[in-house]
C-alpha cells in the first residue's frame, strides 16, 4: 500500500494550497474527506460481505456433516433394534417350542401361591371419617371468623331471618 509520512502529507498540502488557492482549499479538503470516507465504508462492506459468505459456506458444510452423522446414528440404532428384535423372536420361538405344557402354567402361578388378581393395586372404597374436613382444614378458626366464613350450617329460614332488614316500630 502507499506509505504517507508526515513530510509527504505536508508537501501535498503545500502543493494543493498553491494550485487550488486558499479560498477553495477547505471545500476541496472536505470533499476529499467525504470521498475517502465513502471509499473506506465501501471496502469495509465488501469485506463484511465476503466474510459472511465464507461463514455461510462453513455453516452449510457443517450442516451437511451433521445430517450425515445423524443419518449414520439413525441407521445404526435401527440395525441394533432389528437385531435385538430378531434375537428376541428367536428366543421366544425356542422357549415356546421347547416347553412341554406351553405357557399355560405361567398364567396359573398366581392361584398356586394364594395371590388374588384384585389384591394388587385395587382396594375397596372406604368412607372418610365424619370430621375429615375439620382435620384437613389448615385455616385457623379466628381467621375464618374475622373473614366472615361460615363455620356452621344454617337452615334456610335462619339464613333469611339473619339477613332480613329491620323494620322500625312506628
UniProtKB/TrEMBL annotation:
Classification via HAMAP family: TatB
Name of the gene: tatB
Protein task: Part of the twin-arginine translocation (Tat) system that transports large folded proteins containing a characteristic twin-arginine motif in their signal peptide across membranes. Together with TatC, TatB is part of a receptor directly interacting with Tat signal peptides. TatB may form an oligomeric binding site that transiently accommodates folded Tat precursor proteins before their translocation.
Protein name, entry field: Sec-independent protein translocase protein TatB
InterPro entries assigned: TatA/B/E, TatB
Species lineage: Bacteria, Pseudomonadati, Pseudomonadota, Betaproteobacteria, Burkholderiales
Location within or outside the cell: Cell membrane; Membrane
Provenance organism: Roseateles oligotrophus
Compositionally biased tracts (Basic residues): 161-170
Sequence segments annotated as region (Disordered): 141-170
NCBIfam families the UniProt entry points to: tatB
Amino acid at each position: 500500500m502507499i506509505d504517507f509520512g508526515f513530510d509527504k502529507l505536508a508537501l501535498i498540502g503545500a502543493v494543493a494550497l498553491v494550485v487550488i488557492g486558499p479560498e477553495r482549499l477547505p471545500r476541496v479538503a472536505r470533499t476529499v474527506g467525504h470521498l475517502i470516507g465513502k471509499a473506506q465504508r465501501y471496502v469495509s462492506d465488501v469485506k463484511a460481505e465476503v466474510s459472511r459468505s465464507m461463514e455461510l459456506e462453513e455453516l452449510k458444510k457443517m450442516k451437511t456433516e451433521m445430517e450425515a452423522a445423524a443419518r449414520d446414528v439413525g441407521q445404526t440404532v435401527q440395525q441394533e433394534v432389528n437385531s435385538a428384535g430378531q434375537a428376541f423372536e428367536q428366543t421366544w420361538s425356542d422357549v415356546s417350542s421347547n416347553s412341554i405344557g406351553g405357557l399355560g402354567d405361567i398364567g396359573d402361578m398366581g392361584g398356586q401361591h394364594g395371590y388374588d388378581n384384585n389384591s394388587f393395586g385395587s382396594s375397596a372404597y372406604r368412607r372418610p371419617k365424619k370430621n375429615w374436613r375439620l382435620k384437613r382444614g389448615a385455616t385457623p378458626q379466628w381467621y375464618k371468623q374475622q373473614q366472615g366464613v361460615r363455620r356452621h350450617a344454617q337452615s334456610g329460614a335462619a339464613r333469611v331471618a339473619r339477613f332480613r332488614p329491620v323494620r322500625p316500630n312506628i
